[in-house]
């Protein structure tokens, strides 16, 4: 696999089927849980900490599945889906770096929500700043992230942690 600096929706769907990084390695979830339409930038350097950066986008339209059920008469994207998207991107970065294993979110530090995504919005942009990558008995990515809707930052998360596991049987 060549290291690209951007990925299309179809390439992200390949990743969700286990075709991008190989069987048993980092996968994105399939739709409807795939919360990313494209990665516009991914790097090993750069970002706030100089250890890597990812910028990705999700197109918003009123018929997205969560607007119909969260909440009836008051549709809003669940905040946990934006947080999950940031974990998805940290795990993708580990696979993109060539590390092996299945990704699992392992938590985060402080998370703040100070805005919302409504069906009238157009685009969500996620920005992930890799703080540290550890590859010992466990491969671990630690990052800070933010989510903006139509250019306005509405979520931040510090210390996003994702691990890669060669076996998840006892996880």
UniProtKB/TrEMBL annotation:
Top-level taxon: Bacteria
Pathway: Lipid metabolism; fatty acid biosynthesis
Keywords (A to Z) from UniProt: Cytoplasm, Fatty acid biosynthesis, Fatty acid metabolism, Isomerase, Lipid biosynthesis, Lipid metabolism, Lyase
Subcellular location: Cytoplasm
Annotated CDD domains: FabA
Catalysed transformations (reactions): a (3R)-hydroxyacyl-[ACP] = a (2E)-enoyl-[ACP] + H2O; (2E)-decenoyl-[ACP] = (3Z)-decenoyl-[ACP]; (3R)-hydroxydecanoyl-[ACP] = (2E)-decenoyl-[ACP] + H2O
Catalytic center residues: 70
UniProt feature coiled coil, ranges: none
InterPro entries membership: FabA, FabA_FabZ, HotDog_dom_sf
EC number: 4.2.1.59, 5.3.3.14
Family (UniProt): Belongs to the thioester dehydratase family. FabA subfamily.
HAMAP family xrefs: FabA
Function (record text): Necessary for the introduction of cis unsaturation into fatty acids. Catalyzes the dehydration of (3R)-3-hydroxydecanoyl-ACP to E-(2)-decenoyl-ACP and then its isomerization to Z-(3)-decenoyl-ACP. Can catalyze the dehydratase reaction for beta-hydroxyacyl-ACPs with saturated chain lengths up to 16:0, being most active on intermediate chain length.
Assembly information from the UniProt record: Homodimer.
Protein name per its UniProtKB record: 3-hydroxydecanoyl-[acyl-carrier-protein] dehydratase
Gene: fabA
